[in-house]
Amino acid sequence: MTIIDTHVGASTHAQGTGSAFVVSVGQWITSSDHKKIGRLFIGTSLLSALLAAVLGLLFGLERISPAHMQIFDGDATTQLFSLYQFALVFGVLAPLFVGIAIAVVPTQLGARAVAFPRVAQFGFWAWLFGALMVDISIIGNGGPGGGATDLVDLYLLGVALAAVGLLAGSLCVATSVLTARAPGMTLDRIPAFSWSALIGSIATLLSLPVMIGTIIYVYVDHTHAQLIFGGNKGIDSFLGWSLSQPMTFVFVIMALGVLAEVAPVTARTEQPLRPIVLAGIGIISTAVLGTVTQSSHILDWAGTNSDKVKSTLLHSLFNGLPLLGMLIVVLLSLLCLKVGTPRVTASFALSLLGALMIIVGVLGNGLYNLKPASLDGTVFSEGTVLYLVYGGLLSALGALSHWAPLLWGRVIDNTKLLGLALVGLLGTILASFPLYIAGFADQPANTVMGFDYDGPVALWNVLTGLGHALIVLTVLGFVGLLIDAVRNGASVSQEASA
Amino acid sequence: MTIALPAAPAQAPRRQILVATAMVSAAAFMLIVGMIAMWLKFRAGAPTRDSSDGLKIIKDWMPANVTIPEVAANVMLTTFPVGALMAQWAAYSAKRNDSSHRSLALAISFIIGLAIVNAQVAVYSQMDIGLADGQFQTMFYAITGTMLLLVAGGMVFSLVAFFRSVGGRDNDTDVVNAHALYWYFLTAAFSVVWFVVYVQK
Fold it and tell me: Considering only residues 103 to 122 of chain B, which have any Cβ-Cβ distance to chain A shorter than 8 Å?
């Protein structure tokens, strides 16, 4: 018999002749084990979270005194804002949940591996190199609005490559859910997180190609003609939608799946009205309508009654439906607590707080798209993104603590993690909410100097910077607790016997 | 000593390649439709001016000296369904374990891919426009070039399926069905590109 295929985990058993460290690194780099690929995504996303939060902290500091304090010069600010937005959405939110899904979903389905593990491996490396290309191009003055034309091309390629990587990961997750379920596990019986992973992955597969199509146009124009898309300066106006709402709604679908998964476990009961929870997760995916049309639809009360009705309907469809889905999931998850006998667990606290922060972000986006509120072009939009991204981050930390026994074989200290959840909540609110207020005071978006308004400019921006600092603390604290658990923590069997 | 039964064999995935191809096709269709939407937006936003006799309004989108070779474009449109038909023939043969017809059909679908590339090159050659000549030209090359890349993907798929077929993988119906699905997607995607870019211009 001729063996044509090698086992997917074969590369992880390489016999190294060098040091154990080199062998270990080699195994991680070439591994097609879904848990390792997932953990690579998760670890790198947490690093990106640190980068984004540090940038947010620096922007907060610089905005304290727009007239006097200057950390970055004008050109650098524009590009660093692009890096900040890219790191938040494509560096943290999207890959974190793709990574968790790759690591967890196959085990929930009873499958030995994720579908196409080498495609998932390619997905991680494509995303990582894409993200690094974006970082390098911006450092070299090549981001949107940058002066180094060649590096602007590199930026565009980097964004496209990162998107391709995320698409590859999403493809593997969705295919796993559809084809690799254990016998008898029909789609309506799969765990809520796997359901949300399916919905989120399909939504990503339908949304990101539209962004890649735009990048193709912009890249071809930028490298050859620079006639259509405004050269270096025009990139943000054509790609900016992919780094804000409603694109972020697509990436937080799995965050709601985490809550729907963790709540019944915490309450030690079956999920009441489970089909409605699954439908709620499905309703969130209507955000795809907004991403593929690159719009959120502004609610404008001008014009005839017909115009008003049309405007209200579109606004409700694009902003209200995802919110409705999220509310269904959160309310029914809370119903679990009423029906069951709940314990206080950090994973539930993190996932619930994360989901609530996400809902505040979605509500904020609905408000942002009200024309009478006149919030367009203000920092309000940045506050919305931060609510969604940091809310998603809290949910992801909840997921990681919930599945730590599965991923690392250890249980993370619940009490310390509960404290960290409160720090994370405070960090999210402080980083985002002052920007909501500053948005109403007309503080302009994506700039750190040359603005002034009636009100405590310094206070709002000090609070924002503090919020980012607390997020840094939360991420570092979580990593510290995880390392401590892996080194000294209770193993799964010890925890079960206790 | 604990005596335990060995683990059950792993559950065979169900039509994994077909399902993945369906999703890749859906994603690629969104890519093309998104690009078409951008094309329509820029075409609608192109500046207008009165003709020299003042009787007509001219939209400055496709330059007057540019002619799209409709024969080559129409030949491409009719060639795509033939490629899909050959891919379906391969799927039909695979279902009946007819390896020779399966391999033949896959080889023909690859050759049809080559013919489509040839026709696209002919379109470029006959139009004789530069990529940086203007808005229409740049967007024309971007969208047709993307379509060409998707066709190249189809050709690679045909080639891989062909070699698997001649290599004796007689139970490879999943791959051959997925290959047929991809060619159907290519036909649908090019139909949209043909109507918007080559007919409506």
Answer: none
Q: Please name the residue of chain B whose CA is at the shortest distance from the CA of residue A119.
A: B20
Q: In the numeric block, which tokens belong to residue A485?
A: 């658990």
Is residue A323 in a domain?
yes
| Residue B130 lies inside a defined structural domain of this protein | yes
Q: What digits encode the pLDDT tens for the residues A176-200?
A: 999 999 988 999 999 999 999 999 9
Q: Which CATH number is B97's domain given? A: 1.20.120.80
What's the structural domain count of chain B?
1
Digits of tens for pLDDT over chain B (201 positions)? 567 777 666 666 778 999 999 999 999 999 999 999 999 999 988 888 777 777 777 777 888 888 888 899 999 999 999 999 999 999 999 999 999 999 999 999 999 999 999 999 999 999 988 888 888 999 999 999 999 999 999 999 999 999 999 998 877 899 999 999 999 999 999 999 999 999 988
ipTM of the complex: 0.91
User: Would the CA dihedral through A129, A132, A136, A138 be positive or negative?
Assistant: positive
pLDDT-above-70 percentage for chain B: 95
Q: What is the spatial distance between Cα A189 and Cα A195, in angstroms, rounded to a whole number?
A: 9
B32 within domain boundaries:
no
Would you say residue B104 lies in a domain? yes
Please give the C-alpha separations between residue B52 and each of A54, B45, B48, B60, B159, in angstroms, as whole numbers: 60, 21, 13, 14, 54
Is A178 part of the contact surface with chain B (CB cutoff 8 Å)? yes
* Backbone φ, ψ for residue A4 (5° rounding): -95, -45
The whole-model pTM stands at 0.93
Which has the closest alpha carbon to A460: A440, A434, A442, A433? A434
Contact criterion met (CB < 8 Å) for B26 and A205: yes
Of B144, B80, B77, B90, give the one whose Cα is nearest residue B113.
B80
Cβ pair B23, A205 in contact under 8 A:
yes
Q: Is A187 on the interface with B (CB under 8 A)?
A: no
Residue B142's domain comprises 63-199
The secondary structure of A248-283 as a DSSP string is: HHHHTHHHHHHHHHHHHHHHTSPPTTHHHHHHHHHH
| Chain-chain contact of B31 with A221 (C-beta, under 8 angstroms) | no
State which residues form the domain around A445.
Answer: 31-490
* Domains contained in chain A, number: 1
